[in-house]
Design goal:
Blueprint: H1 2-40, H2 42-71, H3 88-91, H4 97-128, H5 135-148, H6 150-160, H7 167-174, H8 188-216, H9 220-228, H10 233-244, H11 246-261, H12 265-270, H13 282-292, H14 296-324
Helix pairs in contact: 4-8, 4-11, 4-13, 5-8, 6-8, 8-11, 11-14, 13-14
């Protein structure tokens, strides 16, 4: 009897197992349908997650951009009625001598500060990239001007560049370079020189951090192999470091160029574009036309033209990087 019961139980279990096995796919699909659906259809979950970001970009980026584009086709006076004038603002874009001069001056300023920022940033990165005692303190000191910001530094320089009382003239007089009464901010070339020195000192810290991070990512074995081959320091930098951080150098240059094309705070605080329009940058010219002359439609057209130029420069830079890689 026990044998029969065991066989029966075994047969029953086998039959039950076969039934369960046969029916498992149907039952499994029914029970695990919702979880599998959520795992095999991530677009729905992804759409829910990115919706806040999409709404934020649409409300605070795309909508203002579309509205600005509309304003550029009008003679919007900021205060009062306006009318649609089509492409007139764009057709007369370069008929404003102040704006044309601002373009040339901004390009000159960009050309002056770009190379020194990269060179000083690279030198500082080489100086602090090694993990030796005191390197952390030096990194903090060199990066501190960028943290303080150009706006604060510009307000400080307004006081320090005053004739007969500022620290700039005091130091130059002590060095025997000037008589200590130079009016830096009312002379176009001198003001440009002072602002360029300020910008190079303030922004090179960011370049240092970017290049230092890239340098620290180079394996030590590469440098050790170069030393075993008898390579000098300059050969190591030229043949190993520079090629391996080329992308970071390009990124630093494009950040510097875009920042220079958008320069506004330091010029507005220190010279307000003067004397006359000698130190007026593109953004200064746009600001004056829109909020001083109340020609917001023309100023918006100039702004959109500047955005297009900066976008073209950025796209070209990324294209150049892709070709080299």
């Amino acid at each position: 009897m026990s044998t029969i019961t065991t066989r029966g139980s075994a047969d029953g279990g086998a039959r039950t197992g076969r039934r369960t096995g046969a029916g498992r796919p149907t039952v499994g699909r029914g029970r695990s349908g919702p979880s599998r659906s959520s795992l095999t259809h991530p677009p729905r979950t992804g759409a829910v997650l990115v919706t806040p970001a999409i709404v934020f970009v649409a409300v605070f980026v795309l909508a203002p951009l579309v509205f600005a584009l509309y304003i550029s086709f009008t003679n919007w006076p900021l205060i009062g009625p306006y009318r649609f004038i089509g492409l007139q603002n764009y057709l007369t874009l370069f008929q404003d001598p102040t704006f044309v001069h601002a373009i040339g001056y901004t390009l000159l300023y960009t050309a002056i500060v770009t190379v020194p920022i990269l060179a000083l940033g690279y030198f500082l990165a080489v100086l602090v990239r090694a993990r030796r005692r005191g390197s952390t303190l030096l990194r903090t000191v060199f990066f501190l001007p960028y943290v303080v910001g150009l706006t604060t530094l510009s307000f400080m320089l307004v006081l320090e560049a005053q004739p007969n009382s500022g620290a700039v003239n005091m130091v130059l007089r002590w060095l025997g370079i000037t008589d200590g009464s130079t009016a830096w901010l009312v002379n176009g070339p001198l003001a440009t020189l002072l602002i360029c020195v300020l910008v190079v000192w303030a922004v090179s810290g960011l370049t240092m951090v970017l290049l230092m991070s890239a340098m620290q990512g180079i394996p030590d074995e590469v440098y050790e192999s170069a030393q075993l081959e008898g390579a000098s320091w300059w050969q190591t930098e030229r043949l190993i470091t520079l090629p391996m951080i080329r992308s970071t150098i390009a990124l630093s240059v494009i950040i510097s160029v875009i920042g220079s094309l958008l320069a506004f705070n330091q010029f507005y605080i220190l010279t307000q574009g003067g004397p006359g329009t000698e130190t007026t940058t593109i953004v200064n010219a746009i600001y004056n036309r829109g909020f001083v002359n109340l020609q917001l439609g023309a100023a918006t057209a100039e702004s959109i033209a500047l955005v297009v130029v900066i976008a073209a420069v950025t796209v070209f830079q990324f294209w150049a990087l892709r070709e080299k890689d």
